[in-house]
Specification:
With about 350 residues, this protein is an alpha+beta fold. It is built from eleven helices and nine strands. The strands form two sheets. Strands 2-3-4-8-5-6-7 form a seven-stranded mixed beta sheet, sandwiched between helices. The protein binds nicotinamide-adenine-dinucleotide.
């Protein structure tokens, strides 16, 4: 869903460089190495350029990372270790390190292998929040490979027909490289929306769509407040629930990470699991042939007449890349609430805050 910021007075605008430098300084001050700080900042900047602040994937994440490092749930510069390392598969023990860093390393290992074998799948256990799934998938697309990344997450979705939360929003990022232009990037949670966006609607005094979340006793509602303690609803009803379950099998059960309700429950051992997949189109046909066939499909899609002329048909990821260039020109929105919180936190940990 493409969310709009209807109340501009809720955000401040900043230049990318200001936010990026601050994210790096902040992460280093809480213990990250230079390499870790730059991977995390790059992910947070991509999120800040792509998403609505209510989706909570930009600088908002700094609060959580700092709290988790303090509580021992995230260990900077963790001694990550390869448990298996086969020709087309591998498994990384992230040793409670940063999720962004573990997923980045796992995807780059998958890319390296897929260049030799055509396809590679790399799992991660004992990890943390890996950020936006599309960021990791895009690593592969930048090198001409198809990237697919997914993770399990804290239980917020109930199995279809129940209100008992057991599965996470378990996002998927899939990036398909295109010749000479942006990749197709499908980057999505398996729930219709998230609690952060519900809070944003609440702040704006808006009703939310009735397919975002249920009340704790299972009633349909458009009131964000009454569903705040209820389950988030899956995309595509029972089909999204099925996808979330399968995602937890591949990224949680099969990697040796936690799964189901236990993910993110123990503050000293979050043990999140991820899975990264890289596929080389040239394992199947000549690269040129793939590029031409893909563009033929894109042309068909783009020639579909729009129901509403103001909303032309777009490819997955197109809205985000367009937003990226708009924000480069106009500035990146950060919620005023986040800015205030970061000013306080930066002062506490002794980092200059340019916000
Ligand atoms: N790490 C975690 O635990 C976690 C959990 C949940 C979400 N996330 C991240 O949060 C971010 C936001 O996820 P989301 O599900 O709220 O995103 P979203 O619903 O805003 O967008 C999902 C996808 O739909 C596409 N899309 C939107 N409108 C479209 C249209 N009209 N036509 C074609 N495609 C369209 C977008 O390009 C995007 O690829 C993602 O980066 C996701 O990975 C992370």
């Amino acid at each position: 869903m493409a969310y709009d910021i209807s109340k501009q007075e809720l955000v401040n605008l900043y230049e990318l460089e200001t936010l990026n430098d601050f994210a790096i300084d902040f992460m280093k001050a809480v213990g990250a190495t230079d390499e870790e700080a730059s991977i995390i900042a790059d992910g947070l900047m991509t999120a800040s350029q792509w998403w609505h602040p209510g989706q909570g994937q930009g600088l908002e994440k700094l609060f959580r990372y700092q709290r988790r490092i303090k509580g021992g749930g995230i260990i900077p510069n963790a001694p990550m270790e390869w448990i298996t390392d086969g020709p087309s598969y591998a498994l990384l023990d992230a040793a409670n390190g940063f999720g962004y860093v573990a997923a980045y390393r796992a995807m780059h290992r998958a890319i390296e292998k897929a260049k030799n074998t055509g396809v590679a799948m790399v799992g991660v256990r004992r990890s943390n929040h890996f950020g936006i799934a599309g960021y990791h998938a895009l690593q592969a697309a930048k090198q001409g490979l198809i990237g697919w990344s997914f993770t399990n997450a804290r239980a917020e979705m109930a199995p279809w027909g129940s209100t008992q939360v057991i599965l996470g929003t378990n996002p998927w990022g899939i990036a398909i490289p295109r010749k000479d232009t942006h990749a197709i990037v499908l980057d999505m949670a398996l729930t219709m929306s998230g609690k952060g966006m519900m809070r944003w609607y609440q702040q704006e005094g808006r009703d939310m769509p009735d397919n975002w979340a249920l009340t704790p006793d299972g009633r349909v509602t458009t009131d964000p407040a009454s569903a705040m303690d209820g389950p988030l609803l899956p995309i595509g009803e029972y089909k999204g629930y099925g996808l979330s379950l399968i995602t937890d099998v591949l990224s949680g059960v099969m990697t040796g990470a936690l799964f189901g309700q236990s993910v993110f429950q123990d503050e000293s051992n979050y043990n999140v699991g991820h899975m990264m997949l890289a596929v080389s189109p040239s394992a199947f046909m000549k690269q040129d042939e793939f590029d031409n066939r893909l563009e033929a499909l894109v042309d068909e899609i783009k020639s579909a007449p729009a129901i509403d002329a103001k909303r032309p048909v777009v490819l997955p990821g197109e809205i985000e890349f367009q937003r990226m260039s708009e924000r480069e020109r106009d500035g990146i929105p950060v919620s005023k609430e986040t800015v205030e919180g970061l000013r306080k936190l930066a002062a506490e940990i002794g980092v200059d805050c340019p916000l």
